[in-house]
Amino acid sequence: MKDTTNATGSGNQPVLLRMEGICKSFPGVKALDNVSLTVRAGTVHALMGENGAGKSTLMKCLFGVYNKDAGHIYLDGKEVSFKTSKEALENGVAMVHQELNQALKRNVMDNMWLGRFPKISKWCPLTSESKMYEATKKLFDELDVNVDPKTVMSTMPVSQRQMVEIAKAVSYNSKVIVFDEPTSSLTEEEVEHLFRIINMLRDRGCGIIYISHKMKEILRISDDVTIMRDGQWIATKPAKDLTMNEIIKLMVGRELTNLYPEKDNVVGEPLLEVKGLTAAYSKLRDVSFVAKKGEVLGIAGLDGSGRTELLENIFGIATRKEGEIYLHGKRVMNRNARESIKNKFALLTEERRATGIFGIRDIQANTTISSFQRYKVGPFLSDKKMSEATEWGIKAMRTKTPSQRTQIRSLSGGNQQKVILARWLLTEPEVLLLDEPTRGIDVGAKYEIYQLILNLAKEGKTVLMVSSEMPELLGVCDRILVMSGGQLAGEVDARTTTQEEIMALAAKFA
Ligand SMILES: Nc1ncnc2c1ncn2[C@@H]1O[C@H](COP(=O)(O)OP(=O)(O)OP(=O)(O)O)[C@@H](O)[C@H]1O
Ligand SMILES: [Mg+2]
């Protein structure tokens, strides 16, 4: 058994939370094997590890979502074992979950107060709307969150909904706050905002547990870092003593010499031509470009510059006002997703957790749902063919799952994404539109996905890839289009350009 007595960081602040020897199994998976974690008051403790390492599960054991099989949890020196999230919240532990779970038809303040609506008075059990409004407004002002408490959730962008969730966690005045990948759908500005909130909480003496796959964030915001691998505790160290490479090595368990595979794809004839694309309901305007066979074409730009809109317009899920699309020199209409899939386009959306996952179905159904014609034998679907395709997906993405009959919602967040990516690859597209393909994916698995993208290019496909991570665009793409304020600001050669050149173009019409 591993000695976890060193699971404490280095500072001398008092210990606030101590988790010791936590074990948790699910059918076929030992998700946590004797894991320990010590969080000191007034510090940010980062929790890192590959997809499926057990980070979310450890936090759910703390938060009363799961019952741990073994181990002890001490809060302020007293042993606790929360049976429900409500109990955890009442005892000073709050959590922002990796998957948003909000009542979308209700407004912001309803969501803030769900389960603890303020009463009109001690004697009147009715909910006081005005108290709710006032309290929400006060908290938002304090946190600088610029949202009207009466806005209906479904009308807000995901990033704002995430900020509401963060404010809600803060509103419980908790001692310990867990953030499970809070920034995966935030804009850069919002990340800065969140960091200001976290620093304020740290100054108040809270213990923050912060889960993220973004190394730079981790090194910037955290005091201590705990690394997990395959359900086990691997190391806890002060962040200042760690480099990105050391973290990667501890996470993956081996040296990762290259972050990007070799670009050995050969760019050929023009395959896709887009002419004067203008959207009906967004600021996307007059975008023209040519993408070639075997090419990986990056799309860079700031948040809101129209990158996602461009992909959605090509795929026909956003309304076009003007513009034409040609494939192999032949005009295609791509009026809706179904027509686009028939024309051999595929789109991996940015918000796959919200739009792509059939939660109650298993991995096989989620993998094969968009490529049924491949598995037909006469009027029937061949189980064998479907299970072979699913097996291919699991292997190609290195998806961590006990079997292909496992329900997708029981996979870790990153592994769910890999299933959705496999789904689109199985439609055998000629043009692959990828919106932030590696968001929420750990470093090791990112490499596999880059390799997959390059292999597709080598098979003669065209890949358009939106990413906010500049090194990733430079590492994988042949050319990069830079969007700014809804327009195409320029085009650069990924082999010779610099981050500065791209940034300058991104600011052109912003
Ligand atoms: N409710 C569940 N039922 C069955 N298995 C589960 C359940 N929750 C988690 N697991 C399994 O436990 C393991 C750890 O998952 P966990 O969600 O904790 O990973 P993670 O470290 O948070 O990964 P990610 O970075 O992808 O979010 C995975 O193998 C996952 O499939
Ligand atoms: Mg997780």
Tell me what the structure shows.
Strand 4 and strand 5 form a beta hairpin. This protein starts with 14 loop residues before the first strand and ends with a helix. The radius of gyration is 24 Å and the shape is globular. Helix 13 crosses helix 14. The protein folds into two domains: 182 residues, Rossmann fold (3-Layer(aba) Sandwich), CATH 3.40.50.300; 237 residues, Rossmann fold (3-Layer(aba) Sandwich). It is α/β, with parallel strands linked by helices and 510 residues long. The chain has a six-stranded mixed sheet, with helices on both faces. A six-stranded mixed sheet has the order 16-19-20-13-21-22, sandwiched between helices. It is built from 17 helices and 22 strands. Magnesium ion binds next to helix 1. Adenosine-5'-triphosphate binds next to strand 2, helix 1 and helix 14. It is found in: Cell membrane.
Task: Produce a short descriptive summary.
Its main location: membrane. This protein is an alpha/beta fold and 510 residues long. It has 17 helices and 22 strands.
Core attributes:
binds magnesium ion, translocase, Ribose/galactose/methyl galactoside import ATP-binding protein, alpha/beta, 32% helix, 510 residues, globular, 6-stranded mixed beta sheet, disordered N terminus, P-loop_NTPase, binds adenosine-5'-triphosphate, Rossmann fold, 22 strands, sugar transport, 2 domains, EC 7.5.2.11
